[in-house]
Amino acid sequence: MIVYDQPLYRPPSEGNNLIIQATLGCSFNRCSFCSMYRSKTYQARPLEAVFADIDRAAAGWPDAHRVFLADGDALALPTGHILKILNRLNRVFPALTRVSSYATPANLRRKNLAELSELRENRLSLVYLGIESGCDLILKKITKGANQRSIKDAMIRAREAGLRVSGTLILGLGGITHWQAHIDGTLALLNQAPLTYLSTLQLHLEADVRQEFARKFGEPFKMQDDRAILREQARLIEGLTPPEPVIFRSNHASNALALAGRLPRDKDNLLSRIEAVLNGAPGIRPEYLRGL
After folding, report:
1. Phi and psi dihedrals of 125, rounded to 5?
2. What are the extents of the domains in the chain?
């Protein structure tokens, strides 16, 4: 049995997969909206400890076929370090088909194409990229540590290396004042850069980051209500013309309305669903069922 260093986070789609903590915390850890790893100091776990977890997991779950490397951004590790972890995983899990991890734009841009391709050849095939917004103004206000161009470059480099990219956006980040700029800047990014999966979350600020978020935003921030969030979602879906088809989801527990489809194929159906809910049809998730 693996004893994890808490808190432990993973994408919803990794819920049934093996999780191995390659790092603790987040190497950036300054995004004003995020409280996930504020209680941790970023560090690479010693390889001996990681290998011990892998071997322990293999003894109890030898047929595991998908592994998620935690914590916040295992891709911050040197390429050689990650390759040693991947080699161990490939050696002890004969059914292994996929390894995945979170990634930041900076992680992806610090590694050259050859490095990313070598990781892909060793079964690191999916990265979860927190895009949050494609609007430079919003990215600056939330101290993302990236801009539209650097995120686009990271997405293109990942795809050139053969990695699938699952991008996440946060609806509501612009508040009442900047919501259109938030969505339009995001469209400008997504209509140029390749993605395999696209997910939306709805802004939720934990108590321990609310003051920091307000201070860094630099002006009064007024939260969007559910109806306004749905209008953001509709503007996003309406304007998406991705360079290749994208699997779209808004089924994260933070969302007011769960949606799923392929874009652009299902654009009209998704927009019709949003319009129906705005006109009173059921579907809004109750507040007490939402969370991160």
Report:
1. -120, -5
2. 12-289
Rounded to the nearest angstrom, the gap between the alpha carbon of residue 68 and the centroid of all alpha carbons in its chain is 13
Q: Which residue has the tokens 């990695």?
A: 163
pLDDT tens-digit map of 128-152? 999 999 999 999 999 999 999 999 9
Write down how long the chain is: 292
Average pLDDT over residues 280-288: 87
Query: What's the pTM?
Result: 0.95
Candidates 195, 271, 188, 189; CA nearest to 235 is 271
With a CB cutoff of 8 Å and minimum separation 6, the contacts of 8 are: 19, 21, 70, 71
One CATH from 3.90.1680.10, 3.20.20.70, 3.40.190.10, 2.60.40.10 for 12-289: 3.20.20.70
Beta strands in 106-230 (DSSP E): 124-132, 164-171, 197-202
pLDDT digits (tens, 9 = 90+) for 162-202: 999 999 999 999 999 999 999 999 999 999 999 999 999 99
